[in-house]
Specification:
There is one protein chain. This protein is of the alpha/beta class. Helix content is 42%, strand content 14%. α4 runs parallel beside α5 and α10 packs across α11.
Length: 376
């Protein structure tokens, strides 16, 4: 059965991790575009404030405060969607927790918690969403990372979890497509995004954490997610830096190892600005929340041409092809009156000359009339 997705304005979208960062930006954007949103996170106050703000702006939002790692979390979320909006059309798995620490200083409880929230909860929710959507269709969107492709030091546990998200999402997609299930399964792979992620992460470094550059605006990820909700896409990478990291990792793994060791080490992942009071370390319990962006004074890119190209490949190909054709027409050789080929004006006065063309010299005045006479 073919996948047919509704326009965003006709959808109800479930978004986990919706109290800050990418999840909050996505909920706000989807609501602005007319979707009904079901917001999920642990922080009740932040969720309530965000949902009320959406409602005041004319949007429709419901919220439920829970830990997605709980066994019955998907069923409770689905029940709210049913009660408020008659079900859901798209499910977005964005919730995650993280820590900045060397792997040898990360204990097993911390490893388990990162995987419980970011991987096992995603698997549980994906299975529930597929079961609910398999007969009528819809979209499942899992938020991975460029770290799904290339791990970096000091975020090893998070990188490993995102590798698992990639593997699960790819396998699920092929199984559903093979069975003809009308569900679009998309993996979103953000590059470094300016969210409170480094403030919320448990930090075992001796300085406040930050996202290493290049850093992009969370609104770009929200744009990618909302696009995938109504357009079947295999995956979308947000930020050209992500393509560079993934490409280098696959083509030159050893060189990428050295680059990670020298460029993306501790200096690139720390900063002097401390977390906002009350926001630090939400690994095991909810902390202060409610912001899309970090409190770091860093340069943030607000556009991504690579994302636009992925969302509209046909238009991008036509644009690139047209530009190439125009360049060829501008530079192509043309026939002169005497039948010789000329690529355009070659002399300083703008005229053409077959002699200068043949000599490969721009100014005919530099071509000698005759061979110099040798002096004895």
């Amino acid at each position: 059965m073919a996948v047919t997705l509704k326009p965003l304005s006709d959808q109800t979208i479930v978004i986990t991790g919706a109290s800050s960062g990418i999840g909050l930006a996505t909920a706000r954007r989807a609501a602005r575009e007319g979707a009904r949103v079901v917001m999920v996170a642990r922080n009740e106050m932040a969720l309530r404030e965000a949902a009320e703000a959406i409602s005041r702006s004319g949007g429709k939002a419901a919220w439920i405060a829970l830990d997605v790692a709980e066994e019955d979390a998907p069923q409770r979320i689905g029940a709210l969607a049913d009660q408020r909006f008659g079900g859901f059309d798209t499910w977005v798995n964005d919730a995650a927790v993280a820590l900045y620490a060397p792997l040898m200083e990360t204990d097993m409880d911390e490893h388990r918690r990162v995987f419980e929230v970011g991987y096992f909860a995603l698997v549980r929710a994906s299975r529930y969403a597929v079961d609910r959507l398999k007969d009528r269709g819809g979209a499942l969107i899992n938020v991975g990372s460029v770290l799904s492709e290339r791990a970096i030091s000091l975020q090893g546990t998070y990188s490993a979890m995102k590798h698992a998200v990639l593997g699960f999402t790819e396998a699920l997609r092929t199984e559903l497509e093979g069975d003809g299930v009308p569900i679009s399964v998309t993996l979103i792979k953000p590059t470094g995004i300016d969210t409170p992620y480094p403030e919320h992460a448990r930090n075992k470094l001796d300085k406040p954490a930050r996202i290493p550059p290049i850093v992009y605006d969370p609104e770009l990820v929200a744009k990618a997610i909302c696009f995938a909700a109504s357009h079947k896409k295999r995956e979308l990478t947000v930020g050209g830096g992500g393509f560079m990291i993934s490409g280098l990792g696959n083509a030159m793994p050893r060189m990428t190892d050295l680059m990670v060791e020298t460029v993306f080490g501790k200096p690139a992942q720390t900063i002097d600005t401390p977390p906002e009071p009350g926001a630090a370390d939400n690994l095991f319990e909810a902390r202060k929340d409610g912001r899309e962006r970090s409190n770091k004074d860093i340069y943030v890119r607000r556009t991504s041409l690579s994302l636009e190209a992925q969302m509209r490949p046909a238009a991008t190909a036509a644009l690139v092809g047209g530009a190439a054709a125009a360049l060829w027409l501008l530079l192509r050789p043309t026939k002169l009156g005497d039948g010789t080929l000329n690529g355009g004006a070659h002399q300083a006065d703008g005229t053409d000359s077959s002699r200068s063309w043949q000599a490969g010299i721009a100014d005919e005045g530099t071509i000698p009339e005759r061979e110099p006479v040798a002096m004895s």
